[in-house]
Amino acid sequence: MNKEQLQAIRERVNRATPGPWSIHREDVGDDVVFYVPTMIKSEKRTIVDSDGGLISWSEPCTSEQVEADAEFIAHAREDVPALLNEVERLEEENRRFREALEEISKEDSLYFAVKARQALKGGDSK
């Protein structure tokens, strides 16, 4: 994931209605009760109303905010997997660096061993 992709996700997050968001459910059905999502709400307003619209008309909201929330929701399907993949990539990279530092810390050279041990402990390696 590159910086531009991360920045685009960050901008969508910053423009969307602040969270937390929650799902509200209603029971439907005759013989069997099903609980289906009917609304997505934030602490301040309804994001998606029970009719599937992106706004509750009884609550004040700008068209820009509705557009930002819609963009955030629409991109979530790609953004979340991309971010999870990036976390996994960084975790693997971190694992490899830690293994390399472990090996370096075993070296006879006191300078490199001390630097590696400091880095492994999260200390200043300058």
How would you concisely characterize the structure shown here?
The chain is an alpha+beta fold and 126 residues long. It is 54% helix and 14% strand.
* String of helices and strands: HEEEHH
As residue ranges, the low-confidence spans are none
Question: Could you tell me the mean pLDDT?
Answer: 80
Number of domains: 1
Task: Give me the number of helical elements.
Answer: 3
* Euclidean distance between termini CA atoms: 29 Å
The computed structural class is alpha+beta
User: What portion of residues belong to β-strands?
Assistant: 5-15%
What is the radius of gyration computed over CA atoms, rounded to a whole number of angstroms?
24 Å
The helix fraction, in percent, is 40-55%
Strand order of the largest sheet: 1-2-3
Query: How would you sum up the major sheet?
Result: 3 strands, antiparallel
Give the total of beta strands. 3
User: Which overall shape is indicated by the principal axes computed on the Cα atoms?
Assistant: elongated
